[in-house]
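Appendix C reproduces, verbatim, an entry submitted by the partner laboratory led by Prof. M.T., so that reviewers can inspect both the input and the predicted structure.
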Amino acid sequence: MVLVCPSVLSADFARLGEECTRVLEAGADWIHFDVMDGRFVDNISFGLPVLESLHRALPEAVMDVHLMIAHPLRFVRRFAEAGANYLTVHVETTDALPATLPAIHACGCKAGLSLNPGTPVEAVFPYLDQLELVLVMGVEPGHGGQPFDRRALGKLSALRDECARRGLSPVLSVDGGVKPGTTAPECVAAGATALVAGSAVFNAKDVPAAVRQLKEST
């Protein structure tokens, strides 16, 4: 069954701990934590103090931290200490990936690599054997509410095939425009093993039903 990873960008920040508890109790697997710096993407979200607070409140929750920032290497250790379990950086980052990915592992985190809609999937291939997660963006990073970019489906299929060819099994995650009953089943059919969904979970009238529908995407 696919992993469901609600993005806290769509949560009510005035009740963030309660909101995360609510989706986890509804069956969500991980909490997806999007960090934006206003440089790598044209938006600012939240950072270390918020992650630290959530980790204290929910020490058993898996924190899937997505660093949409220009210089992630500078912050790898600090996010690991704040409670990250997975640390995902972008293949388009300004920092050298051959240094960044080992730094993530050295801090005890699992390493992920993400790519934007316009980036060829082959950009990830040289690093696949160093990754526990690959995150395919279904929208341009930085803002919610965008339509799903169907190029993500081809990338997921290519990643699934390349990983199978090499005998690798990273989590293949997709973020942006993921909706139960529509894009979610398409993503799973293309190879996704984890679905990042924000409003589809946090804003659902029936959160357990929304989580269950995502998990059962076929």
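The chain has eight helices and eight strands. Additional entries are available on request from the coordinating office.
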